[in-house]
Amino acid sequence: xxxxxxxxxxxxxxxxxxxxxxxxxxxxxxxxxxxxxxxxxxxxxxxxxxxxxxxxxxxxxxxxxxxxxxxxxxxxxxxxxxxxxxxxxxxxxxxxxxxxxxxxxxxxxxxxxxxxxxxxxxxxxxxxxxxxxxxxxxxxxxxxxxxxxxxxxxxxxxxxxxxxxxxxxxxxxxxxxxxxxxxxxxxxxxxxxxxxxxxxxxxxx
Length: 205
Fold this sequence. Notes:
With about 200 residues, this protein is an alpha+beta fold.
């Protein structure tokens, strides 16, 4: 089926995409109507129905919107790959479980180099600001369970995802913040954590 999308639908899609990716929230029909300059939410609801029918957006179990495709006209798909955005924390489920995926973002293959698997997480806070990872940045990670000393990693601790610098000595692992804020302290562990991926790049908000 040929995908035809109007300028107004594209504007709505970009608004939804920015809200989900950079703010971590699903906009309401009224939010979308207001952003598009509509007085009535009905017009926005019709656009949502069209985007849903095209398979570009969908709904999660809780009713919130999620991105199923990254649609941008004139974007060369041969040079990009769709990477899952898993938000900021797994909330008790495995980090890459389907229920944690908020959508997919097209990333250049220059960054997400095949044949490795990748995912995106949204950085929160300032614990890695000296490593050029700031609050709200999208962090591109290569999916793997091992890391080398000095790697910036996404680790899972007590079912919560954290981004830190990895250091390993003997039976002890240190997850070290890189921050100007001295309240952040290293996390020292010997078990009960898992490396989920190694940071490749931070995509600025």
